[in-house]
Amino acid sequence: MKKSLVVIVVAWAFATNTSFVHAIEFTRQPFIQNSTSQSVDIRFVTDTQEDLVIKYGETINYGNLTYSTNYPGTGGNNNHFLISSLKPGKTYYYQITTSGGTPLTPQKDRSYFFKTAPNENSPFSWAAWGDSGEYGKVNIEALKSAKPDLVLISGDVGYNYTTDFANNNYQLFDVYKDISRHTPFYPTCGNHEESCETLLVDHTLPGGGTMGGQLSTYSWDYGNVHFTALNSNDKFTYLPENLAASDPQMIWAHNDIKTSKATWKVVYWHHSGWSGGSHTTDETIVNNMLRMASDAGANIVIWGHSHTYERWNKKQGFFPNVQVFTVGTGGKTGLTNCTKVSPGPGCAAKITTNKAGFLLATVEGENMTLRFINEDSQVVDTVTLSSDKNGDYKDNEAKVESLISYERLLMLSTTIAILASSALIVIFAKRKR
Ligand SMILES: [Fe+2]
Predict the structure, then answer these.
(1) Domain termination residue (choose one: 115, 141, 172)
(2) What is the CA(279)–ligand 1 centre distance, in A?
(3) What are the DSSP calls for 79-122, one per residue?
(4) CA of 150 relative to ligand 1 center, distance in Å
């Protein structure tokens, strides 16, 4: 009796084509890639193969429509929307549906948007961190408040980033899905990228991410900033007296940075050169990658690997001729024993609390303000840099707004301890009487 009832229900469901129709689902949520002044790429993965529809426009009434197409990637059904003929520096809202009109993202939801790159000299902001992995979720609320227009990840994107699709969702895509649905990420490989190849296939990066003849080497312009991502895992010998005999990514990067006409040149990779954090100084990084960036005329170098935040100011006429940051605080955390005199030329600033965080840069023409924002959205360090058109700094030393150091904290703690001890001695002395 029961069996015949089940058969009837199943037959009815198929006949009416309602109950047993599979609803397509994202197995990797939509994420923005490769924003230019005229185009954007929206990647996603679904559980079954179906061309989807995106509605987009400058208001939540949308007004434009295009279809997805297949894209090579991991995890099965990789599709993307390649949207072109856009206006520079604009915000566009979007909604994704099935070809039949079933919503897959909410309608008129302002958190589903993308921005095109601005024209040269228009203000924008970018964020950077390394060493996030699954731990990156501690920074999500602070990132939502900071609203960067693009994100650089200087390696150790995952612990570990492998060939396993579900693992990589857990390590990266699920962690940042509320951010990456509107903000493009530009990762480079660290020592915890077990499969750098998979990281590159999973993203749409300028030049396929291999512009320097090695994996995870690429560059692009956004507004008046030229960004260059390098790979510190492999082959980075730099010979200043014989550039042609250097490793391919160093030859490429030197040319790439030197020939760029952008106002600002930002270079990032994973391994730390100087650091007093979870990793100490690596002279091979300093003498090859940092020297190359300095010689080629980079303004800013960012590295991770050491789970802390440190800043070295540029000093005119000294090596390196570039501002350097350690930002290995994307989720992993730790302090540093960097002082004003070492390692290297000594830190201008560092963190004093064991909290995660990221660097947030606000670009306004020839001025750039870089702030270290911790996981509680507190501004821990600020420096404002100026650059003229040929990329040389004016002296930025006078513009350092804050310098938080262990030395100050130590001095404060010692003073409090002395005062407390003195008070106790007075109290005991009075009781004895
Ligand atoms: Fe690392």
Answers:
(1) 115
(2) 9
(3) EEEEE-SPPTT-EEEEEEEETT--BSS-TT-TTSEEEPPPPTT-
(4) 22
